[in-house]
Every structure is written in C-alpha cells, then in structure tokens.
Amino acid sequence: MPTDSDTRRAGKPRAARASFAAAISTSLEWYDFFIYATAAALVFNTTFFATDSQVVAALNSFATVAVGFIARPVGGVLAGHFGDKVGRKPVLVAAIVMMAVATSLIGLVPNTQLVWLAPTILVTLRICQGLAVGAQWGGAVLLATENAPAGRRGFYGSFAQLGVPIGVVLGNVVFLVITAVFDSESFLAWAWRIPFWISLVMLPVAFVIHRYLEETPEFQELSKKLAEAPVARKSPILQVLRKNPGTVLTAAGANAIGVIFFYTMITGSVQFATTYLGIERSTVLGFILAACVLMIPLVPLAGYLSDLYGRKLIFGIGTAGMLLWGIPMWLMIGHSSQGTLWPFALAVFGAVIVMSFQTGTQGTLFAELFPPEIRFSGASLGYQISAIIGGFSPMVMVLLINGDASNAWRVGAFLAGAGAIGLLCLVAIVRKYSSPDVHQTPARRSTVAA
C-alpha cells in the first residue's frame, strides 16, 4: 500500500510541471501588462496624450493604465465562473491567447491626426489586457497550488507569483535594449512598438499548456463527484458573494498595499525620477530591473517560509514592512538625482525585499480561504478588487506630488496609510480563520476553507 511519502514523491513531477507552466504563463502575461505601464510613463504622455501641462499629460496617460485595472475584476468574475465549472486549464489558455492578441495590436495603434482615435483604440485594447490578466491569475495560481504535494502548497504556489518580477525584468530589458539601439526620435516615433509585438510568443506557450498539461486533481475530483451525483450548480460567483463577501473584501483590503506599493515603484518612480529629478531613463529602468531580479529568488523563499511558519504570519510581515518602508522610501527617492543615485537604489531594493513576503504568499493564502467549488471565483475576485485600487496609485502619486518634487513624502504617507488598512484587514482574516493555517493537513484545509 503506498505511503504518504510515496504519494508526495509521485506528485512532485506533476507539481513541478504545473508550477513551471504557471511561472512561464504569468511571466509573459505580466510582461504584456507591465510594458503598457512603462510605455505610458515614457511614451504615451508625449505622443498620444501630449499637452502643454506635464501633469495633465501624465494623468491622461496613466488613466489608460488604470482602465486595465478596472477591467481585471470583470475578467476575474468571468474566469471564475468558467474556471469553477469547466476547469482551471482551459480558462488559463484562453486568457493567454487574449493577452497575446490584444498586446500585439497595441503595437499597431496608428499615429493619426484624429486626436480621439488612438486613445480610443488604446483604451479598448487595455480593457482586453485587463480582462485577460484578471482571468489568468486565478488559473495560474490554482494550477500550481492544486497540483502541489501536501504541505508544499506555499512553495509551489509561489511560482505563479514569480510572473510579477520576471514580467517586469523582461519588460525593462526589452525597453533598455530598444532605448540603447535607437535614438530618442526613433524610439518615440516607432521603436516603442517592438516590445508589444514580441508578445506573440505567448501563442505557442498557450498551445503547449493546452496540449500537454493535465487538469488539477482537485478539480478532477470535484467533476467526478458531480458526475456521480449530478446536481444543478449555482453560479460560483453568486455563491461567493452570498456566502463569503466578507472574506473577499478583507482579502482585497489586505492585498491592496502590495499592489499600490508595486505600481508606485515600477511606474510612478520612473515617471517621477525622469520628469522631476533629471535622472536618465535608462538609469531608472536599470535600477528597477536589478531590484526585480533580486525579487525573483525572494518570492519562492517567502512561499517556502509560509509552509513552515504559516501564510498569515509571512504575509503580515510583508504588510508591516511596506507600512514602515513607505515614507523612508519616498523621502530617499525625492532626494535622488543623476549625481546622487544611491538613495533611489536603496529605496527600490528595500521595497522589493518587503514586498516579496506578501507576493510570495498571497496566491496560496487566497486560494486556501475558499472551498474548491468556488475557489477560482473567490480568490480571483479578492485579488482583482485590490488591483483596481492599485491601478489608480500612479495617478494618485501625480496628484499628491502636483508638479513639486519636494512633495514626494506625501506618496510615502499614502503608502503607510494603505499598509495600516492592510494590517487591519489581515487581522480580520486571522480572527475569522483562527485555526492553524490551512496548509497543515487536508482535514484542516477543508475545515478552515469552509
């Protein structure tokens, strides 16, 4: 009779394949989603949205970034419905295809004398990006966590979160190469489009996942039970909203600080440093790139630590760290210049360290808050609601600074406030699910998730 250790060993190759597929797919999805934000900070404000006011141009450009975040919960709701009814894998594949097509088309948006045409096309395609990434996150996280061996969900689930730093690294590398090869005139005229065309490589990835990866064991078991005792299944999202609305809202509130922190760093700091501090674009992107490279090993480390010490503890350390680092981070950014770069470097390196504790655990933590039959819907909705809040953070940053670099500390205060709200929401989660963390045993998982 096979032992538990035999089962774990047998499941490791499957878990490794699923985690690798989740990491690759999310990396490419986030690459596509992030390069739009980078282009909005470096290109769109001087091309499609150019005005006499730098503040207005930046606000208009970042507004289209925010549109993608507004669409993400809609994508999460649609994907959750089909992901809980049809399966995790087909939803993930559909999301990858949608993202590849939408992103490549952004690279074809024409420069036109019709001032409304290009922004309209950009907004439409950005909505498609938001729908795709909203659908993709839940599928990738559940693909990794539901294939993971017992007691290792945190570690294997963290690979789906690796797409965040890897996506930023890929996007920044491509933009750094483009800016190094082409002069500023060529870059603004047409070369900025190349990173968007590269996204077509996602289509072969979607085919491989569709062809060679199996559905998760938990969904297969759920489908088998329904086949043996068929019942009329209600809408998963309606079940989540009826039975678990508080869990969704507290999860969103706890996660919002991570999204806000991340986007004020990778997008807001780029716009601030290049516009107000006179730091070269390639220098800023280089620091962001290096910081995200550091984040890559820290994310699975956080997932591993969550298997040992609990999701909520590691997640809470990251939340508290961002609360405490917000003001010092932006004070240092505000005192940086082309001749004094070390404060900027220290600010962003410190940021990725504290963020990693939350990033590496959030996918598994959210998945374990919901039972399998509504897990895709519940986890996706909580995560994507927080994304709406985070999507507006670059615009909030522009308004808080208001054209005066000495106001950078206001952004730090904004981050500290979001961190305080995040801790309060995490406390609410801990009180509701006061039993030991759900990763410990299958019995614990079913009890706490319900």
UniProtKB/TrEMBL annotation:
Keywords of this protein's UniProt record, alphabetized? Cell membrane, Membrane, Transmembrane, Transmembrane helix, Transport
Q: Where this protein primarily resides, as one coarse class?
A: membrane
Membrane disposition: Multi-pass membrane protein
**Which positions, given as ranges, span the membrane?**
33-51, 57-79, 91-110, 116-143, 155-182, 194-213, 248-272, 284-306, 313-333, 339-360, 381-402, 408-430
> At the top level of its lineage, which domain of life is listed?
Bacteria
Q: One short Pfam family name for this protein?
A: MFS_1
The residue ranges of the Major facilitator superfamily (MFS) profile domain are 18-434
GO cellular component: a single term: plasma membrane
Where is this gene product found?
Cell membrane
* GO MF, one example: transmembrane transporter activity
Q: Which InterPro entries match?
A: MFS, MFS_dom, MFS_trans_sf, Sugar_transporter_CS
Q: Which SUPFAM superfamilies match?
A: MFS general substrate transporter
PANTHER family registered for this protein in UniProt = SHIKIMATE TRANSPORTER
Its protein name is Putative major facilitator superfamily transporter
* Origin species: Rhodococcus wratislaviensis NBRC 100605
